[in-house]
TrEMBL record:
Segments passing through the bilayer: 20-38, 66-85, 92-113, 125-148, 185-203, 209-229
Signal peptide coordinates: none
Keywords: Membrane, Transmembrane, Transmembrane helix
Domain of life: Bacteria
Listed name of the protein: DUF1648 domain-containing protein
Length: 328
């Protein structure tokens, strides 16, 4: 057995997720409203990429309908990612991202107003400066709103539970750690990252979006494809094997009990809605494959599950440590 020395932040609460989604909802609503109000003043083809030199003159173009779809997809995709993965300390990042992307889309729309020839449209560097300023303002709002989100999920005092125990002497200290991985997710993430250079070779605007989507899917996917699960005196910790963050931890004083559950494909789809990092009304989980899972019941009644080999040993040790901690 090995001991872990990693600390991790709590799972995001519903209020925190709502605060992370809010700036993307505002940016999306503004974008769609301006598209509607300016529809008669926008050309069928929009200038969407501009040369660094030559006064910022357009050198890449996108149809108006395609631009609308791409803008919506970009805001929805980034908003979904931030909402699922946000931590209170990073809420400002969600607001900064929404502010920058939303402002950049508005700047592009504004530059194309009344344009008869998209090739003559120019976008000076002040457009990027305005987007950066919007990101800074939104980041500040995110920092202020972070204080409204609780540090962790509220937990009632756990009650006793049945479950396996691992015999430990009064002075013994133990820890357990195992890695678990998903081959399909590894392959999918690798393919998404491979699409990044391919996207950069395409036309500027759709190519850049294609490359960005490859990064958005590939980077978190590869981080989640192989994780390490650790049980020790701090509780249960799940973190990527390749990078130190993001990490998920259920502190020992929130553990009401731990058991082992066998998850087949039907159970994964019914209880978690699929594979990956899953968030449901009464449970969260890191479900990378079928098979045995460590299931931790919190004092609030919510469950956290992670599929990992030798889950029985992890559950027994966690119950023993929680009992020793005086909570079970």
């Amino acid at each position: 057995m090995t001991r872990a020395t990693h600390h991790v932040g709590p799972l995001a609460t519903p209020r925190l997720r709502a605060l992370a989604a809010l700036p993307f909802v505002l940016a999306l609503a503004t974008y769609l409203l301006l598209l509607s109000l300016w529809s008669d003043r926008l050309p069928d083809t929009l200038a969407t990429h501009f040369a660094v030199g030559d006064g910022g003159r357009a050198d890449g173009f996108t149809g108006r309908s395609a631009f609308a779809v791409l803008g919506v997809g970009l805001l929805v995709g980034l908003g979904t990612g931030w909402t699922v993965l946000v931590r209170r300390s990073a809420l400002w990042g969600a607001w900064a991202t929404a502010g920058f992307i939303g402002a950049l889309l508005v700047v592009l729309l504004r530059a194309n107003l009344e344009a008869t020839d998209p090739a003559q449209v120019a976008s000076p560097l002040t457009g990027l400066a305005l987007a950066a300023a919007a990101a800074a303002v939104f980041a500040l709002v995110g920092l202020l709103l972070a204080s409204l989100a609780p540090a962790d999920e509220p937990a009632a005092r756990p009650g006793a539970t049945d479950g396996p125990r691992l015999t430990l002497g009064a002075s013994e200290v133990a820890g357990w750690s195992r890695a678990t991985a998903s081959r399909p997710l590894t392959v999918l993430s690798a393919l998404a990252l491979a699409a990044v250079p391919a996207g950069l070779l395409l036309a500027p605007w759709p190519g850049a979006l294609f490359a960005l989507l490859g990064l958005v899917i590939g980077v978190p996917g590869l981080a989640l494809a192989r994780v390490r699960v650790t049980v020790d005196r701090r509780g249960v910790t799940v973190r990527p094997s390749l990078v130190p963050r993001p990490r998920v931890r259920v502190p020992l004083d929130e553990v009401a009990g731990a058991t082992v559950r066998e998850l087949d494909t039907t159970a994964v789809l019914r209880d978690f809605g699929g594979w990956g990092y899953r968030v449901r009304a009464d449970r969260t989980g890191v479900v990378l494959h079928t098979g045995e899972a460590l299931v931790v019941r919190r004092g609030s009644g919510r469950e956290f599950a992670v599929t990992v080999p030798d889950a029985a040993t992890a559950a027994a040790l966690l119950n023993t440590l929680a009992e020793r901690h005086g909570r079970v």
